[in-house]
Amino acid sequence: MISSVDLPIIANIIEASEEQPYLGLIMELDLTEISQLIVDSELAFTQSKEAQKGIAVGELSESLLDAFVRLAELLDEGQNIKILAPIIKREIFYRLLMSEQGTRLHQIATAGSHSHQIA
Questions:
Q1: Which residues lie below 8 Å from residue 92, measured CB to CB, with a gap of 6+?
Q2: Residue 37 pLDDT > 70, yes or no?
């Protein structure tokens, strides 16, 4: 889920067990980092009314899940957090840009877009 506005969210967890627990993560979007990734990668995005929503939900790819897991596992490796966390966060932002939410994230990060003005 990507949100460009601060909204109260209520969710119901339908499936969770001791063997397969539910884990929720929140990560703030670093718009400066995302904008730099857009420039560095020379990604091209098209404008979309769908991308202007204040909040949207998408599928989580295995590669994106893997990056989030590696970021969470750094909590057990205190000495590595300072160096590895920024690298993994950059990877997460890049993978989000490459996902179905990429156009939306691009509009959030780009000054002057409707979503950016809402944020």
A1: 27, 64, 67, 68, 71
A2: yes
